[in-house]
Every structure is written in structure tokens, then in C-alpha cells.
Amino acid sequence: MGPIHFMWMLLLSGSLCVHVVRGVPIGTSSVNCAEGSDLTLGPVDEEYEGEVEVFNEIPVGNTVRLVAYAFPDHINFLELVYTPGSTNAIVRTKMALDADLLPQTGGQLWYSVMCVNSELENKQKLILTDLNDKAPIFEQKVYTKRISEIQAVNTEVIRVKAVDSDISININRITYRILDPAPADFEVRNDGAVLLKRPLNYNIAQNYKFTVEARDNGDLFDTADVLLEITDFDNLNPYFNHSLYQATIQEDQTGPFVTIQPEAIKAQDGDTGINVAIVYSISSVSPSKYLSNFNIDANSGVMSVVTGLDREEIPTVTVNIKASQQDDSLKTADALVSVTIEDVNDNAPEFDKASYSVTLLENSQIDTPVFRVTVTDLDKGGFVGTLWILPETVPFSILLDGTVIVKSSADLDRETVENFVFQIEARENDPPNHVVLADVNVTLLDENDNSPQFKSSRYEGKVFKNQTVGMLVTQVEAADLDAGVNGQVKYSIEFGNLEGYFSIDESTGEIKLEKNIPLEENKVLQFPLYVAARDGGGISRSSTVLVEILAPGDSKPKFLLSTYRGSIEEETDPGAVIVKVTFLAVTTVVPVTLQVLTDADKFAIDSKGIFTSKVKLDYEAQSNYSVQISISDGTSSDEATIVVLVIDINDNSPVFGASSVKHPVPEDTELGANLTAMTATDADDGFNRELRYALRGGEGKFAIDPKMGMVSLSGALDRETKAEFSLEVVAQDQGRPALSATATLLIQVSDVNDNVPSFSKTEYEVEVLETESVGTTLVTLEAVDLDEGTNGVVTYSVFQQDPPSTVAFFQLDSSTGELRLAQALDYGAVKVYNLMVQAADGGTPSLVGNGSVVVRVKDVNNNPPQFSAERYDVAVSENLASGAAVVTLEVTDEDEGGFSNGHFIFTSDTFNINKQGVVSLKSDVTLDRETKDNYVLQVVAVDKDGLNATAQLNITVLDYNDNTPQFPTLPDPIPFPEGEYSDKSPGEVYHILATDSDLGSNGEVTISICHTISLQGGWDATGCGSSGSGDQ
């Protein structure tokens, strides 16, 4: 290389300078009174209080003071602590810093420390980190507006606005929403505009009220009410409440309709908010000729009849009515009114005859038709009413169809009443209840329904020794109530006149002697004649009577037997007939006397020979009697004996030895076992003293031997079901009627240990807080043993605990069943204990019942969350993508549910953390190592009850070659001193310092010198040389 080439070679050196500013709340600076300075400090969270910056190296002889930098109000937050002559000063806060009060600088606090001597300022900008400490605030708490129901869909109805005083756009960004119950008719955009989403209808809703929420990114919010009043628009026709009305009027009625269904005629404007007045009119009437008969009030809609109608001419009329808006006759509605004309009861009913005269055979049966009347009525429906017979005492009634029938056959007796005169009344049901009457005369026709009746029920006659043929013995007389031949009577002797001693006159009824009767001594001959009386009816009726004719001889009384026998039951009331004694005597001529000669105090006899008792006899006292009797007519007499046998009756009831007996029986007694004998005695004889036994009660568990009275067990006993049985033992004799006696047998069932104690629940469940005190009663177990005494005394115990433990966690009171906590619980150690418990009774052998208790330990939030590490060191490249994850912080919590319901407190403008603990770069942030190469963050994990833990996260930003080397400004031309320069003796001409903000090899700079040489042919060539070590 020639000398000229060496002349361009320079000895150059390259260097790399890196300056890192750490953002900390307290900064340290030097006061530059020679040139002043302009620095940026921070960031520091707003609300910070304390020392902001320490100034050092204040030149001797200079004085400093705190002055405003651009914004005078900023230094209201600060004060300068400085002693004149000192080389140090401190800037500290006078009040908590608030970024939200520094909107002009985006939350930066500007101030300056001025050197008084030189008046140069050391300007400082303190970056404040905005915290989400301001909730959005609506400009109004209530927004109101009136809107028309024809408001267009998807147009803005009203706009709400809330302001968030936080200065950071990441914090003060507001979203709006309508809170539930949100009407589907509206939605709100994030600019606060409320839009209509569905058409409005004033008739459905006149007002809307809903609440709008404004919420910032930090979940702080405010609410405001929106009240919308909907105004009506005249776009609907009027309408009737019903399309069809029904009215009923009476014929000849005029004036307003009294009733109309389903309600009074009414029409109204479809636009209820405007409600224009309605005009009513009649459009047409069918049939049309009745148009003039009706009118409708134009204002009220009340219909009336102008001219009365005749129902017989027209029963129904249809009226078409119209309702028009007063301000627009083209807006109309139509309806129909169906008018029914009702009949008026203005005609009285009429009988087909004014009077009725009929005949009826007496004794006609009940319901026999007599005759029928016809009643008519010119009104609608004809005659509708009731038919009555007056007076009601006559033996006739009338059916609905007008048929008169026999009501009482017994009263149709011509011989009592020959004819009946009465009236038939026809009465309408409806007002004015017209009444008409018709006269009736019913004459009864005779039938042969009466037999001849004798005037005496018995006739007598006597024939003595002076008898003569043809003499009148007696006369009978009968009468017949029937008329004519039915009432003519003739007499005859039917039987009893075999010897022909008597004859009778068929017309007069006189009985005469036809021939002499041969009389007998001491005897009265009797001739019972049966005389008949017959009438002259077509079917003759007759009746008979007894005519007794006596013919006595000479009197000598005597008994027919020497001994008579009779019997009587004991205890029979006095006057009982024992036997009838027969004797011969002419008692009708010569009276006789009968007497009891022995035992006259107990027996008596009458003149007819009837032997009776005078007192009650007792079989047990005397079972038979021999009684002497006599008969005498005063001249002659006779005697006889009556043997009386007294018959035993069942007059003694059985008697138990004791009326009430108690007997204990063990409940496990075998079936069929004899329990006790219940016997009775009876003082009677024979069957009357033979006893049979029976049981009442006992529910079928007991039986008794019917002859022996032994009570035995026939059904199983269970004292716990029933401890006593009250039985009634009946002893009954075999007499007729049978007599009985009762005794009470009280069976007392004694206990046997046959019932296992039973817990009230198969499994008890109890929940207990893990912090519950030892000794606390958790639950009281209850077991029931139906046995009694010691058999029913229950003792409680725990025989198994799962999971097991060296020392039992629970203690069960053996007497009361109270389950108490014996050891402190720990939810983290055991969540559920299963206890097997038993209840044993005091019987021998003891019976045991088992149960279980499930104790669920309830967690108490007494454990704070725990990070997996107290400090996390993470390195990421500065070219990390926005939104990318950096690290996941693992947090555990020994309480129930772990940390699933917890959250993180994390303040950073650069990084986010989600509920899962994933720390990621914010989506709108990128890293720049050259600006900031390290982040020290505090992360707080807070559980649902506020217990928390803190961890430190150190994020180191690794370099990425994203900066180009930078030359300083070079003079042009570059001056250099004269001299000789060669490869062997190079010399420094100019020192060029190039820099690169990157680190390591990314920040190593290689400097090259390039020069251009002109070549032949007009070409230029450029050549460069570099210093391999970067120092040329």
C-alpha cells in the first residue's frame, strides 16, 4: 500500500455505553447549578407519602429552593427540606400523591429545584402509577325522557354518561349495561347510547324503568335509573269491548234497555293515551222495518226502544251499531246487538168447560181416572202453572195433564157421602199469576158392598117344661146399608137344627118351637143355631149370628172325676190357671157353689170349675200339693181331689266364687298352656243348673273350656304391644230362658327381655366446625327398648371409629346418649368420622342394637393461602409477544375448596395476572430492555375471607438485538495534524466513539473505514477496512 493510502488510515477506537434507570419511589440526584438538568423519576404508586428525591452535591456557596415547573399547582404536593449551606436537600410529600389530579401531564408530577445563585433549574418529572381508586360516576342519578310509541327501531332513545376520575385509560375505560330485569325493548352501547330494539306499543306499556350500570376495568361501578314515558300516537281505530251484545226486552216495552249482556255497550279509542271521544250510531236493523223502533245515545251508547214491539209478530231483532272517533269519522268500529222480545203474561188460562158433573162407582180403587180437564193459555208456551183441587179434603187429586184421579178409595162410600162437590183451580206460575176455577160434582153409584149386620152379636132363648109347639123362642134382626134390592134382607137357619125343633120367619126373623124337646135331669140341653141374613144383590152378601137355645132339666150337682191333676211353674204370678174341674149341674136354673177345702190360702176355684193359684209357689220349698174341693147347690153336694205338681223353673243365676280375679302371665308363655280356672255354681236343678262357660274380650288370645271353665292361652303375648287384657268370663245355665253370671279376669302380662334396643335413626348425621370446643355436645342419640324395668334400661357406647385414632376424638355418655367432642378437630387432617355405636339393655342376657353416626368436620377458613415460593425469578426476552404468559404462580390453601375462590392483588402497568395465577404481558404493552430491564412486583393472594400471602416476582428482561449502532456527529471535514503516517508508524487522527444500546455481542460495535477509487472506464470502486477488535 502506497503512502497516500496510509494517509487515509486512522487509528480508531469503538466503545459501548449502557445506562439503566430503575423506577423506584425514592430517587437520588445531583444538583447541577452550572447547566441545570431535566430528569424523570419513578414510577411510584399514587397515594404515596414520604421522601420523593434526595439531592446531593449542592455546590458550596449555592442555595436551592423548590419552584414550580410549568404547572404551579403541582408543588402543592411537595416541600423541600433544606438547610442553607448544606450540600444535601430532600424533596418529600406534603400530602398523598394523586395522579388523578394531574390530568395535564398524564399523571406526572412536575417540579423543579432551582439554584438561587444561577437561577438554573433542575427539572424533575415524577411518574405516578394510577390506581383504580375512583369509581365511575353518572352525571345524573335519574335520566328521564318522553318518547313516542312510533320511535324507530335501532335509533337512540336517550344517552347516559358516567365519568371515571382515574387518569389511566386502562383503568377509566367504562362499559355500560342494563341490569336485570332488563327489558328486551332496549339495549345500551358502551358510549352510553340507549337504543330501541323493538317497536313500542303505548297500549301495552306506558312507562319503562330500568337501571343502567357503568363499570370500569377494575370492577368499580355506579348505577343510574332511566325513566321513559311513552306517548301515544293516534294510529288505531276505536273498538267495542265485545263484538256481540245480547239484550232482552218485553213486548210493548219502551225506554232504555234494562239489561244487556255481557256488559253495557261501550267503545273506546284504540289509542288509550289519546282516547278521543266516541260517537255511537245505528247502522242498520234486521228486519229493516223495525229501524225506527230503536235509538242509541250518540254519547253514552245507551240503547232504547222508541216504539214497543209485539212478540207474536217478531221474536228477535238484530241491530248493527257503529262507534266513530269524534275527530275522524273514518275511524270506526262495528258490533251487533241481538234483541230478544219476551212474552208478557197478559192472558188468563181457560178450562174447556165452566163446570163438570160426573158419576163414579163407590169403592173405586186409588188412581182410578175420574175425568180429565183441559186448560189453555193464549200466552207463549200455553198454560204453565199448577192445578189444585179445592178443598184438598175431598178424596180426589189432579195430575199435571188435568186428569182427576181417586186419592182415597176408603172415602168413596155412598152410604156415608152420596156425592162430592168441589172446585179445580188453575193458577199460573208467572206474575200476575192468573187464577181460574171450575166447579165439579161427582155422584157415587151404589154397589153391593155392605153385608147385612145383626143388631146383636149373640141371641139367646130358653125352653122350659111348660113348652108348647109354635111358641116364640126369640127373634133376630139385621139391617143392610145398601140401596134397593142390595139392602133387602131375608133370614134362614143354616145349621144346628138337625132334629127340627125350631123354625124361622125369613122376613121377620122370629124363631118358633116346631116340636117339643125331651128334657134330661141335672142337665141343660143346648141348641146352638146359626142364623144367616142375606141381601138381594146380584152377588148376594150375608152374615151369620149364633142363637143359643137352652133347655134345662132337674138339678143334682156332682164332679165327673174323683181326682184331677194339674201343674204350675214355680214363681208364676197369682191367678194362673192350673186345671179346669168338670161337673154336672143345672147352673142356669139352680146356681152351685165350688170351694177349696184344703190349702185355701194358696189355691182358689170359681163357679165354672177354674182352679187357680193365689200366691207364687216355690219349687225349692214344696214340689207338689193334694187339694180337696167341693160342689153344692145347697141341697146336694160332692167332693174331689186336685193333685198339683210344682214345676221347677230356672230362677237362680250361676254364682262365681269371686267377681274379679287378677292373674299374671309371662309374655313368653307357650300357646295352649292352662292359665287359671274360673268356676261358678247354680242352685237350680237339672238342666237349669248345668253350666257352660264363655269368654268375652282378649283379642282372640285366650280360650276357655266350656264345661270346666279352665282359661288357656291361644295367641302369642307381647307385653310391649299390650300389657293387660281384661276378660269377661260368662257362666250360663241351660235353663229356658238361660241365666248367666259374669266375672272379670285381668290377665297381667309380665315382661321378658325380648326386645333389642332400637336407635331412633339408623344413621345420625352431624356437622361440626373444626374450631368447636372440646366437650361440646354434638348430638344426643336416643335408643328405645320396649321392655320394662332393667330389661328396658339402655347403655350407650362407641365400639368403632373410622378413621381410628390412638385417643378417641368423641365421647358418648353411656346414660344420656350425648355424643361430645373429646379432641380438637382438624379439617385438613380428617373431614369425616364414621362412628359405630351400640345400645345395650340391662336384661340377662343383654340385647344390643347397633347404629352409626357420621360426623362431618366443617372447614373454618383459618389457613392463609401459600405461594409455592416466596420469590419468583423469571427471565423473558424483550421481544416477548404482547399478551404472552410469563409465569404461573402456584397458590395452595389448606382450607376447604383450596384457593379456587381466591383472587390476586397485583399492580403493574406492564403485566396482568388472572385468577389462575398466570402472569402475562398486557396485550397493549411491549418490553424494551433498553428502557427498563427489570421489574420487581409484589403479588398478594387473598382468599374469600381476606386471609392473604405475598410473594415477590422479579422479571428480568433479556436483551434482543433490536438497536442499531449510533455514531456521534462528526466534523466535516475531519481535521488532523500534519505528519507522516505509514503502516509502520500509524498515528491517531480523530477518536470516533460509536455506541449500541444492546448488551453483549449485540452491543459490540465494529467500525470500518471505506474509501472510493475511480477506475478506468468511468467506474468507481469502494473498499472498506475494519478493525477486528472494534478499536480502530
What does this structure look like?
The chain is 1% helix and 44% strand. With 1032 residues, the protein is mainly beta. The protein folds into 9 domains: 27-129, Immunoglobulin-like (Sandwich); 137-231, Sandwich (Immunoglobulin-like), CATH 2.60.40.60; 239-342, Immunoglobulin-like (Sandwich); 350-445, Cadherins (Immunoglobulin-like, Sandwich), CATH 2.60.40; 448-555, Immunoglobulin-like; 566-649, Immunoglobulin-like; 655-750, Cadherins (Immunoglobulin-like, Sandwich), CATH 2.60.40.60; 758-858, Cadherins (Immunoglobulin-like, Sandwich); and more. The model is unreliable at 1-25, 1015-1023 and 1026-1032 (pLDDT under 50).
Short description:
It contains 2 helices and 83 strands. It is mainly β. A 5-stranded mixed β-sheet has the order 21-19-27-26-23, with no helix packed on it. Strands 1-3-6-5 form a 4-stranded mixed β-sheet, with no helix packed on it.
Average residue pLDDT? 87
For the largest beta-sheet, the strand count, sense and barrel status come to:
5 strands, mixed
Shape: elongated
CATH topology of the largest domain: the name is: Immunoglobulin-like
Span between termini? 18 Å
* Rg computed from alpha carbons, rounded to a whole number of angstroms: 70 Å
Helix content: under 10%
CATH homologous superfamily of the largest domain? Cadherins
- The structural domain count equals 9
- Low-confidence stretches are 1-25, 1015-1023, 1026-1032
What share of the residues does DSSP label as strand, in percent?
35-45%
Provide the spatial order of strands within the biggest beta sheet.
21-19-27-26-23
